[in-house]
């Protein structure tokens, strides 16, 4: 059973074709990078997978852990239950800025606890302890009581990851998690994602720069103009191939000081080889 | 499995997406519409009489002279009536603010579906477009003369106003935290409680406090039709040509409203 299975997914916004007949499978426990230039459809694909966006075509279908979350242009009836299994991390962190870091992390419980308790915000001691642990796990135990608006970008993103840990989701979708961060924070966030993946959580990370894909993700899926143009081991995605795939746009995907040939992926960070490798 | 390159061409000519002209067209229509409405209203509103503001300034000066020597002999009584007016405004605004929360959320287009938004909005329009005075007359008939009728009148009218302001605040919220909360598997109500309410709370507080200040002024006017408070005393004084006493009451009202303004600013700071 695949963690994520997408079939014949298409989407247009107005006249623009955002996604065109996308099909892909991601196995449980994989760590996959989704790369592509701005506007190539990475975010749109992510938003479809977690059921925030609905495809139009009759054929389009997305299954999460073997159950459809949307098919034939309609959201599944129990989409809410499935969303619980998908943690989502956004580029702009999407924390509730006026609430404390702890409260934000606690919101990860909403899909798991009784509705009345969640709505009144009555989280119990155990849930609060787990939320604190999650903040410690992502390396920011000191910000528990700080308002989310006062956290740095890297801290906000790690708090957002802590929220998905509390959610205990089996899949983690990270939509450009490091695009708004400085290099050091970006590395920290990627390390946290890799360690979450080591615990068996399937991770899909959309990235703007291919260096991070090579370093942290064994498998890369590359999009251009809403189509998959590459799906395979990240090590095969050389700079030359990127130039071939994206032409002039490849500049924004490659860091200027990056080596022309990719380093071998960091094995310590990615012990689980994806089925794509085997 | 190895990487498969499906596209090799590096050249890609992208077609330019056409500009949406309907938007700029409707913007111009709106401005022209405003100009037409203003022209249409000029004569009916007797705006052509504006020179009289200057030619008849003497009349106003004579009238104002009566107010120059305020008489504070009965200040204790005035303060007591002022307090009643504030108490009327306080309850009217509080009840309105409480009711405006559900009504405001239900009339926000980004939260509720149109078949809820439209009826709720029309109901709120009705509350808002009918003046407090009209409601006060209705309530005086229903519950008799006195402050309670005034408080109820303010309550109904203010609910209409606050619901509209609250819903506009909701419509201007950042939708991204709401999506993040939806992605955790939360319910619709929970999305609103944790995604939207924390964002709009300071604005809602600020609107409610501002309406409280306005309602203190409105409550004085309600005194005219017998809804109690300092307004009733003030209008009796003016009708009886007791200008020094009326002047004293006006000064008390002015000072009170300014003090309330300072106070509500401090309260607002607490919530921001």
Walk me through this protein's architecture:
The complex is a heterodimer of chains A (278) and B (272). With 278 residues, chain A is α/β, with parallel strands linked by helices. Chain A has helices spanning 42-49, 79-83, 101-106, 115-119, 125-137, 153-167, 183-198, 210-216, 239-246, and strands at 2-13, 16-27, 31-35, 61-64, 67-71, 74-75, 86-89, 171-175, 202-207, 219-224, 227-233. In chain A, strand 8, helix 7 (183-198) and strand 9 (202-207) form a beta-alpha-beta unit. Chain A starts with a strand and ends in a 32-residue tail after the last helix. Mean pLDDT of chain A is 84; it is low at 260-278. By secondary structure, chain B is mainly alpha-helical. Chain B has a single domain (77-271), classed as MetI-like (MetI-like fold). Chain B is built from eleven helices and no strands. In chain B, helix 4 (75-106) packs across helix 7 (147-171) and helix 6 (132-143) crosses helix 7 (147-171).
Beta fraction of the residues of chain A?
Answer: 15-25%
Radius of gyration of chain A: 18 Å
Total discrete domains of chain B: 1
Identify the strand order in the major beta sheet of chain A: 7-8-9-3-10-11
Give the terminus-to-terminus CA distance of chain B. 56 Å
Question: What kind of assembly state do the chains in view correspond to?
Answer: heterodimer
Count of alpha and pi helical runs of chain B: 11
How many strands, what sense, and barrel or not for the largest sheet of chain A? 6 strands, mixed
